[in-house]
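Problem statement: downstream parser choked on a complex file, so we are re-checking the raw output for the flavin mononucleotide run. The parser issue turned out to be on our end (a line-ending mismatch), but while we're here, posting the original submission so the record is complete.
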Amino acid sequence: MNSAVRTIKIDREVSSGDFRSAMRHLTGGVSVITVGQGEDINGMTVTSVSSLSVDPPTLIVSVNRNASSWPLLERHGFFGVSILTSDQLDVAERFSGKDGLKGAARFAGARWFTRMTGVPLLAGALAAIDCEVEDIVERHSHAIVIGRVLDMELSSRSAALAYWQGQYVSIDQNEDAIKLAEVSVPARAKSDIAIPKRRS
Ligand SMILES: Cc1cc2nc3c(=O)[nH]c(=O)nc-3n(C[C@H](O)[C@H](O)[C@H](O)COP(=O)(O)O)c2cc1C
């Protein structure tokens, strides 16, 4: 590995609260990371997935090493990324651990399938991506996981689920993107996701 860890001299500490406030402005696409096989499965909601390189196809995701999915991810060396559509808000909530469900119980109520690696992938997701762990960089509380894309399935749906300002937001390709702020909904209320009417 050719990464260099630098000791950073800090004159004035930025508080974690201030940093969190800054990050609330960053709009993140919501995905579910899935790990394991059979009954030994787990998963978590993330916004930290992004593309690393197209050739070869690789992506990165930042995972808290205290998350219950972490040991399975490390042990199996494979993970799935299901990029959620806006009507999969209930899945996002279940996999964020909000209602206390753990492991296989989080998968109930949605349809799952497998591709090459055997990890569960969410049916109807905008994209369901099968990855093999290529590298892991452990830093602070988290690990940056580099995943080599082995297989994937794309859906023809277009409305994405994003997270912005502490709320889930629906982004619909067919709607005016400038109206993004108006579709912001409280994290709890799936039925409240409002797709604004296009102005004529
Ligand atoms: C919108 C949203 C985005 C999240 N993004 C991440 C992320 O990128 N990385 C991460 O480690 N945890 C992220 N989390 C937190 C995990 O979903 C949560 O800690 C985990 O599912 C619960 O941990 P547990 O499996 O130990 O119960 C996010 C949560 C939400 C609601």
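For whoever reads this later: The radius of gyration is 18 Å.
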